[in-house]
């Protein structure tokens, strides 16, 4: 019988929104893509930019800034779409940039503080305090729940 090894680190994809750092578990990320052509879909929530065709799969795209209530994303050369998978549904999250995969030690992860900037606290599950970097760990379930 194998010993159960306690997880001491969480691999996370770190991305930026409005100068702040956020993270999601690498296990939920399928791909990170440059911005592709987005087809608008009428009568959808304001945070849904539209859909893309990624290798034959139609994927809804969420403007994460809009979803968090901190503005609208401005597409630049660094803008990325993080394709995540939740309950067999793939969703793209538009972020300012995504360039880090880091291991966050469990002891660095703290419960979310009472006030998390201006971002709606419901979307933040925890905060990682890493060498003076504060990284907000997103709750993907809350972000994509309207689409499931």
Compact overview of the structure:
The chain has helices at 64-68, 140-144, and strands at 9-17, 20-25, 29-34, 48-54, 57-63, 80-86, 89-95, 97-105, 109-111, 124-130, 133-138. It is mainly beta.
Description:
The chain is mainly beta and 148 residues long. The chain has a single domain, classed as CheA-289, Domain 4 (OB fold (Dihydrolipoamide Acetyltransferase, E2P)), CATH 2.40.50. Helices cover 7% and strands 50% of the residues. The chain is built from 2 helices and 11 strands. The strands form 2 sheets. Strands 8-1-2-11-10-9 form a 6-stranded mixed β-sheet, with no helix packed on it. The chain has a 5-stranded mixed β-sheet with strand order 3-6-7-5-4. Strand 6 and strand 7 form a beta hairpin. The N terminus is likely disordered.
pLDDT average, as an integer? Answer: 87
Helix coverage percent of residues?
under 10%
SS field, number of helical segments: 2
Helix- and strand-based class?
mainly beta
Q: If you consult CATH, what is the topology?
A: OB fold (Dihydrolipoamide Acetyltransferase, E2P)
**DSSP E strands, number:** 11
Major pleated sheet:
6 strands, mixed
CATH architecture: Beta Barrel
Low-confidence stretches: 1-5
CATH homologous superfamily designation: CheA-289, Domain 4
- Run of helices and strands: EEEEEHEEEEEEH
The number of domains is 1
CATH class type:
Mainly Beta
Cα end-to-end separation: 38 Å
Strand ordering within the main sheet: 8-1-2-11-10-9
Strand content: over 45%
CA-based gyration radius:
16 Å
